[in-house]
Amino acid sequence: MKARVHVMLKDGVLDPQGAAVKHALGALGFDGVDGVRQGKVIELDLADGATETQVGEMCEKLLANTVIESYEIEID
Amino acid sequence: MKARVHVMLKDGVLDPQGAAVKHALGALGFDGVDGVRQGKVIELDLADGATETQVGEMCEKLLANTVIESYEIEID
């Protein structure tokens, strides 16, 4: 079973990586970029029988810092 | 317009971040994690009229190192 977790900084939390990418895109001549947020994606290859609940626990305990980050789980 | 870009290390490229996450999950008692790959996700807020081709150019020029990374574009 495959699971994909997206971890993004919550709205309102300063995202210096995203700001740097936005600046660099502007410097390269890409206009019309109004905002950039950068996060992490973690692809997990899990034994059969793993549940979304377990993946949620992994996020809470390790993958995301839930004070400043939110996460989304996709199960394939 | 919103675009989301996933940048992952290509298969066969060593992923030390993913390996560290796999090890840490095991240490926390999560069994059955057979593999972990970690990548980046970049959310772009673009002016209307931007095209997937433009986002592809951004990936080629800045967002991904195409020697070792592959990218996927999702347009919302």
TrEMBL record, chains A, B:
<keyword id="KW-0547">Nucleotide-binding</keyword>
<keyword id="KW-0658">Purine biosynthesis</keyword>
<dbReference type="Pfam" id="PF02700">
    <property type="entry name" value="PurS"/>
</dbReference>
<dbReference type="GO" id="GO:0005524">
    <property type="term" value="F:ATP binding"/>
</dbReference>
<dbReference type="GO" id="GO:0004642">
    <property type="term" value="F:phosphoribosylformylglycinamidine synthase activity"/>
</dbReference>
<dbReference type="InterPro" id="IPR036604">
    <property type="entry name" value="PurS-like_sf"/>
</dbReference>
<comment type="subunit">
    <text>Part of the FGAM synthase complex composed of 1 PurL, 1 PurQ and 2 PurS subunits.</text>
</comment>
<keyword id="KW-0436">Ligase</keyword>
<comment type="pathway">
    <text>Purine metabolism; IMP biosynthesis via de novo pathway; 5-amino-1-(5-phospho-D-ribosyl)imidazole from N(2)-formyl-N(1)-(5-phospho-D-ribosyl)glycinamide: step 1/2.</text>
</comment>
<dbReference type="GO" id="GO:0006189">
    <property type="term" value="P:'de novo' IMP biosynthetic process"/>
</dbReference>
<dbReference type="InterPro" id="IPR003850">
    <property type="entry name" value="PurS"/>
</dbReference>
<keyword id="KW-0067">ATP-binding</keyword>
<dbReference type="GO" id="GO:0005737">
    <property type="term" value="C:cytoplasm"/>
</dbReference>
<comment type="function">
    <text>Part of the phosphoribosylformylglycinamidine synthase complex involved in the purines biosynthetic pathway. Catalyzes the ATP-dependent conversion of formylglycinamide ribonucleotide (FGAR) and glutamine to yield formylglycinamidine ribonucleotide (FGAM) and glutamate. The FGAM synthase complex is composed of three subunits. PurQ produces an ammonia molecule by converting glutamine to glutamate. PurL transfers the ammonia molecule to FGAR to form FGAM in an ATP-dependent manner.</text>
</comment>
<protein>
    <recommendedName>
        <fullName>Phosphoribosylformylglycinamidine synthase subunit PurS</fullName>
        <ecNumber>6.3.5.3</ecNumber>
    </recommendedName>
</protein>
<comment type="similarity">
    <text>Belongs to the PurS family.</text>
</comment>
<keyword id="KW-0963">Cytoplasm</keyword>
